[in-house]
Amino acid sequence: MDEPRAPGPKPKPRWWSRPAAARPDDRPDDAAEGAEERTGPAAAQLAPEPVDAPAEGPAPEERAPRPLHEPDPYSTPPYGGPGPWAPAPPVQHPVTTPAQGTHVPPGMAQTPHQAPGMTPPHGTTVPTAAGPVPGQSAPPQHPGMTPPHGTQLPPGPGEPHHSHQAVPTAQPAQGAQWGGYDPWTVVPPPTGRERERKTVSRRGAWIAVLLIALVAGCLGGGIGAYAEREHASGGVDVKLPQAPVEKEARSPGSVAGIAARSLPGVVTIHVRGSAEEGTGTGFILDKRGHILTNNHVVQPAGTGGDISVTFNGGQDAKAQVIGRDTGYDLAVIKVDRVSGLTPLPLGNSDSVRVGDPVVAIGAPFDLAGTVTSGIISAKERPITAGGEKEDGSDVSYVDALQTDAPINPGNSGGPLVDRKGRVIGINSAIRAADDGSGLGGAQGGSIGLGFAIPINQGKRVAEELINTGKATHPVIGVTLDMSYTGDGARVNTKGAGGGAPVTAGGPGDKAGIEPGDVITEVDGVRVHSGQELIVKIRSHRPGDRLELTVRRDGKERPAELTLGSASTG
Question: Which residue numbers delimit the PDZ domain (predicted)?
Answer without folding.
Answer: 465-552
